[in-house]
């Protein structure tokens, strides 16, 4: 685990192009250890692309992204995707899916794997899924699947957690429990970067908010959030889809 | 014919050994083919192998049966088709990429075989195989392939497991997906090349899909899935060869029909169990955990 308040992530002048289009431009962002950063922004604003770039799934120019600058050990990063591309007939149980997260990185002796199994059972209890552990993963509800993916990410004992809209489609109770768990993780020193569209929830829980639409429109403490800056970021999105209105009936305009 | 009588004939013994070895290889590979939705790719590679076998058999080393050199040429050709599929998938839909590659390779194989007066008669051998004419060479190749497949699975077990669940998550967790995809396609290519002689290209694809499909219906863990798949595959091979020995059905179709019958039995059994068995424990929701009001989400106005 990193020292409190040390810099875990430093993004400098990040620009990302995908398929010839500029998706992100001039992103500067610094995240400290144990911080809970809420990433908000309109659809198509580049939030998921930023997460994928931080994970190394999307190429970025060298030197733009520095995880744990100044530290010898690269941080362990846990990732909870927006949705999985799992086949609806995928047969493996929730416990087996969880343990995949451990075995993927634990190439050590058998004792390490046994310890991972014990830890997996603890995590299943922590995310409230011990009863569903033997069920096929695809039989779990959307919220349960996200909680299991969170447990899978935590199995790596990560220094930083990247979550892409994990509370989408989850009921209020589920959102509440999920965010409480994230706050607890922050208190344990795990850095959390959470992408969400749920502004009331995220502004109430995160330490810091970053508002993204191609570039950063706001980056600061959640309680200091400037609604006009956020409105401006979202308004840019709305003008992109502005519909030309006409008083004339559709049929007349077609003639 | 009794088992002792069966074993008296060398060609029958070789057929049995080859059938079991092929069943082990297909049973080990089948779960990954099914879970990664590579069934069409496996079928495509099986068809494409005709092109490779034709090149190896006719152009490189003419002869009645494939020699080691012919097998090698056919394998390299099929691997190139697999790489072509992997490359074209970046530009086309994956099924279109597979279709384009395998149809072209298949057409090349038919053209070569026909132009060298080794037309439909030889093609029938390639399409449906001939288990009873298995030679020690094929048994040796199958033995090597079985060891190779088992070794690859042991070395890449964790990465393969993560890949079957979700490709992007596996990449984020540090798994080299490209290496796994190419490696799996190479192993499938080697299997279809060796199996062409034994069960034919039309039936080897069935052996790469059916055991894994049955395993998916029965298993909840990866290792049990692989064990069930391999067990079903070997069982179908032994039963199929026994049925073939007592009837006029050739061994290849007989093995595939036995595997299909096993799938039907498992499907029917699981449906009956679901209908008359106990409800799943997940139907019970976990109890509501009350939260203190201060920990409730702060509702603020949208900016």
List its traits.
heterodimer, A: 255 residues, alpha/beta, 8 helices, globular, B: mainly alpha, 12 helices
Can you put this structure into words, describing what you see?
- The complex is a heterodimer of chains A (255) and B (303).
- With 255 residues, chain A is of the alpha/beta class.
- Chain A has 2 domains: 1-75 and 159-255, P-loop containing nucleotide triphosphate hydrolases (Rossmann fold), CATH 3.40.50; 85-157, no CATH class.
- Helices cover 36% and strands 23% of the residues of chain A.
- Chain A contains 8 helices and 9 strands.
- Chain A has helices at 47-55, 94-103, 110-126, 142-154, 172-187, 199-205, 227-240, 250-254; strands at 7-18, 21-32, 36-40, 65-67, 77-80, 160-164, 191-195, 208-213, 215-221.
- Chain A is globular and about 45 Å long.
- The N and C termini of chain A lie far apart (69 Å).
- Chain B is an all-alpha fold and 303 residues long.
- Chain B has a domain at 3-202: ABC transporter involved in vitamin B12 uptake, BtuC.
- Chain B has helices at residues 3-8, 10-35, 39-60, 68-88, 94-115, 120-128, 136-165, 167-172, 177-198, 201-218, 222-246, 251-276.
- In chain B, helix 7 runs antiparallel to helix 9.
- Chain B is globular and about 55 Å long.
- Classes of the chains: A alpha/beta (255), B mainly alpha (303).
- At the A-B interface, helix 2, helix 5, helix 6 and helix 7 of A face helix 7, helix 8 and helix 10 of B.
């Amino acid at each position: 685990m990193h020292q409190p308040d040390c810099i875990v992530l430093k993004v400098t002048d990040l620009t990302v192009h995908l398929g010839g289009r500029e998706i992100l431009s001039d992103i500067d962002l610094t995240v400290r250890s144990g911080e809970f950063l809420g990433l908000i922004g309109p659809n198509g604003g580049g939030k998921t692309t930023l997460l994928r770039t931080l994970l190394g799934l999307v190429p970025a120019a060298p030197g733009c992204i520095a995880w744990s600058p100044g530290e010898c050990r690269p941080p362990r990063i846990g990732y909870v995707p927006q949705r999985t591309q799992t086949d609806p007939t995928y047969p493996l149980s929730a416990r087996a899916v969880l343990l995949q997260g451990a075995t993927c990185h634990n190439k050590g002796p058998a004792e390490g794997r046994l310890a991972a199994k014990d830890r997996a059972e603890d995590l299943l209890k922590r995310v409230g899924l011990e009863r569903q552990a033997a069920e096929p993963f695809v039989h779990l509800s959307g919220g349960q699947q996200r909680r299991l993916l969170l447990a899978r990410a935590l199995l790596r004992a990560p220094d930083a957690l990247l979550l892409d809209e994990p509370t989408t489609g989850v009921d209020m109770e589920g959102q509440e429990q999920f965010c409480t768990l994230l706050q607890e993780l922050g208190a344990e020193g795990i850095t959390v970067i959470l992408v969400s569209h749920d502004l009331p929830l995220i502004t109430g829980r995160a330490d810091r908010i970053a508002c993204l639409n191609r570039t950063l429109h706001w980056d600061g403490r959640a309680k200091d959030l400037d609604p006009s800056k956020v409105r401006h970021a979202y308004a840019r999105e709305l003008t992109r889809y502005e519909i030309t209105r006409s008083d004339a009936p559709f049929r007349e305009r077609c003639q | 014919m009794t088992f002792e009588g069966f074993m008296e004939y060398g060609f029958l013994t070789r057929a049995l050994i080859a059938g079991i070895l092929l069943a082990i290889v297909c049973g080990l590979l089948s779960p990954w083919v099914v879970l990664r939705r590579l069934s069409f790719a496996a079928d495509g590679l099986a068809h494409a192998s005709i092109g490779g076998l034709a090149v190896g058999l006719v152009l490189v080393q003419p002869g009645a049966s494939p020699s080691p050199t012919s097998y090698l040429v056919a394998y390299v050709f099929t691997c190139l088709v697999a790489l072509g599929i992997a490359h074209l998938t970046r530009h086309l839909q994956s099924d279109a990429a597979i279709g384009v590659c395998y149809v072209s390779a298949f057409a090349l194989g038919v053209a070569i075989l026909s132009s060298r007066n080794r037309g439909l008669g030889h093609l029938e051998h390639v399409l449906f195989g001939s288990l009873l004419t298995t030679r020690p060479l094929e048994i040796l190749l199958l033995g090597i392939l079985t060891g190779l497949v088992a070794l690859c699975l042991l070395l890449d077990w964790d990465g393969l497991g993560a890949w079957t669940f979700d490709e992007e998550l596996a990449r984020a967790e540090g798994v080299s997906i490209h290496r796994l995809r190419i490696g799996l396609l190479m192993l499938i290519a080697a299997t279809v090349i060796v199996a062409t002689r034994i069960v034919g290209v039309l039936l080897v694809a069935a052996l790469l899909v059916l055991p894994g499909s049955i395993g998916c219906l029965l298993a909840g863990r990866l290792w049990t899935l692989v064990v069930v798949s391999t067990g079903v595959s070997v069982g179908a091979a032994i039963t199929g060869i026994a049925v073939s020995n007592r009837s006029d059905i050739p061994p290849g179709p007989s093995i595939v029909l036995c595997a299909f019958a096993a799938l039907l039995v498992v499907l029917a059994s699981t449906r009956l169990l679901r209908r008359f068995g106990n409800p799943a424990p997940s139907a019970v929701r976990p109890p509501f955990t009350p939260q203190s009001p201060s920990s409730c989400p702060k509702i603020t106005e949208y900016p």
